[in-house]
Structures are given as structure tokens and as C-alpha cells.
# Entry
Amino acid sequence: MPPETLPGTHVEAIELRRIALPLKTPFRTSFGTETERDILLVKVVTADGVGWGECVAGIEPSYSSEYIDGAQHVIKQFLAPDVLAEKSTSAVRFADLVAGVKGHRMAKAAVEMAILDAELRHAGVSFAEYLGGVRDRVDTGVSVGIHDDIGELLETVDGYVNSGYMRIKLKIEPGSDIEQVRAVREKFGPDLPLQVDANTAYRLSDARHLARLDEYELLLIEQPLPEDEVRAHAELALKVSTPICLDESVTSIQAAADAIELKACAIVNIKAGRVGGYLEARRIHDLCWGHGIPVWCGGMLETGIGRAANVALASLPNFALPGDTSASDRYWATDITEPFVLENGRVRVPTGPGLGVEPLPDILDEVTTSVETITA
Ligand code: NPQ
Ligand code: MG
# Structure
């Protein structure tokens, strides 16, 4: 299905629903520890049926400048009125429609996703089919939070390796990096696909320290330096032999193009929320493909709603490395949709119309903390 052929739909109402989901275990990164996710779900009600979106913004502006209350405010005050004023709107026209709102990409991505889901459900087309997926299952990795105790870290990694995850990503920060990587390499051997994610915790002056990771044959170092230090990543890339992968810095196709041109990264982590939606995510996929830059699908501790869309995105051809598209039970005791499960290290790409999954009403009710509905 060519991207521009979506039929469009009239959005009658936008429901903003907040849910609280406790994480099975606390998740620590260089920017903080999460014990529970407070998630904003967007439901668009259209003349042709409903569509679901999930906003990936966190409670605090610590991964990026966006945060959940801010995203909800922007949707309510600026994005929803633009959408509700249209006779017919489409995901393919959404970015232009809200171009007057600068930034707020996670907020925009959630609304665009809901509109796209409504259109695709109505058209009987899956996210994967629409986006150009070429696989019915995607190779899956897992992101492992920072552990104080190396013995406990090895136990956690052992559990994931035994579950079948195809690669391990260790969260790192200064003071919890080289020793942890060495211990995991020593215990699991040279064949374990292993990478690290610093979430911007280092400075260019740490280049010699980061080069100490080179001997452990990592697939990549993800976002070692601050978001706006793209040129510094290019300098770092000359000083370490492990490939540099950007996450936080890649906020748009333009940012991706500039980073590639500067040789700031050899690999790109694609997260639709971070770049303003699944359509921009697909464009970045295509751009990277054209430049010989492999990509992989990041994760933001999504429910089954966001996970379904991520898995669909990860089925595109240039998603060459396993993604953070882990099974539902990596994070949740009970997901709000039918759970995504790991089968031989892979997760199945949904085939039903739109996302191919929807929230289970009883579970959704149980976890809902507030609902507000916006109409024209
Ligand atoms: C990353 N995700 O790749 C992110 C970081 C992250 C799976 O490592 C709330 C909001 C919690 C945003 C936890 C993974 C979060 C979050 C982790 C982002 O950098
Ligand atoms: Mg990351």
C-alpha cells in the first residue's frame, strides 16, 4: 500500500486516558530509576471507528525535554483542536496540520499513531503492511538496567539469555561500565551479542575511558554524549573503535541526515515517539538504508499498544539489529493487550487491521487513573 493512499477520516473526539502500570522490577538508567509507568493513551473516535495511540513521554523530563503532563497539555490545547477542526484528516497530513506547533514530538507521535490506527483498521490493513514490513517475526533483544551488584547483574542477564533474547543491552554510566561489561563478556563468552547504552552520561573528555570498552567487541555504544553534541560524537567515533549509535540526538530525519553526514554514528536507534511518529520513523529508516546505515527499533517501556507498532516498524528491511522490542513480560505482570511473547528470540508481528491488538476493556478499566475527552 503506497504511503499516500490512506483514505482519511473525520475525528469526532479524542480521549486522553492515563494508566498506571507497575514495572515488574525497577529499571535504572543513567537518568534515574523507574518503578512504575504513568502512560498516556490517546483514543481517536472517528466516523469509521476508533484508533489507539500511546505516548512514550516519561513522568519527568529526564530522557528528553518532554514529559507526560506537558504532552497531555499540548495535545489538549493545540493538537486536538487542529485535528477536530478538520472535516477529514489523515495521518499522512497530520505533520503539516500541526506544523505550527514546534517540537513536542512525543505528543504528536501519539496522536498521529491513533489516527493512523483508525485509518488502517477501517481500510483492513496492518501497520506492518502499510509501513512496508518484510518479516513476520522480529529479532528481539533486551535492555538491562544498571545494577549495583555485579553478581545480580549476571543473574539478570542469565535469565534473559535463557529466555532466548538475541542480544543484551547493558545500561551504563560513569562508575558502572567497564567492569560490568567485562564481567558479562567473561561469563557469557565472545558470541553473546552485547551492546551498551549511556543515555548521554559521558563527555567527549571521557573518550579514552570509553575506548577501554573496545576490547569487549560490543555491537555498539548508544548515545554516550549529550543530545545536542552531534559533532562531538563524530570526534568520539575517531577515538573509539566500537561503532557509535545515536538515540536521543536523532529527533528528526534532518537530524539523522546531519549525523550521518558528520559521521557521528554508524548505526541509528529509531524510536517513533522521539521523532514525531511512525511516518517520520519510516522516512529515517529509508534514509539510513540509502546510506548503508543499519537501524534497530528502540523501546520506551511501552504497553502492548506501543509495542505492536514498534514490532511492525521493526519488520522493515533495514532493521538489521535486534530491537528493544522485548516481550510484554519483560516489563509487565499483566499487559493491557494480549501479551507479546518471545518465541525462539523473536516476537511475532501482528497481522490484524491497524495495530492488530487492542486494550482488553476489563484490564484497561483497572489500570486507568483518569480520562478526559475532547470534542470540537
Ligand atoms: C533507551 N529505553 O533506549 C530507553 C530509555 C528509557 C528500553 O532502554 C520512562 C520514559 C522510562 C522513558 C526508561 C530502553 C524510560 C524511558 C528507559 C526511556 O534509551
Ligand atoms: Mg537509548
Q: What stands out?
A: Residues 27, 29, 34, 58, 63, 143, 197, 199, 247, 298-301, 324 surround N-acetyl naphthylalanine (ligand 1) (CB under 6 Å). The chain has two domains: 3-123+359-375, 129-348. The mean pLDDT is 97. The chain has 13 helices and 13 strands.
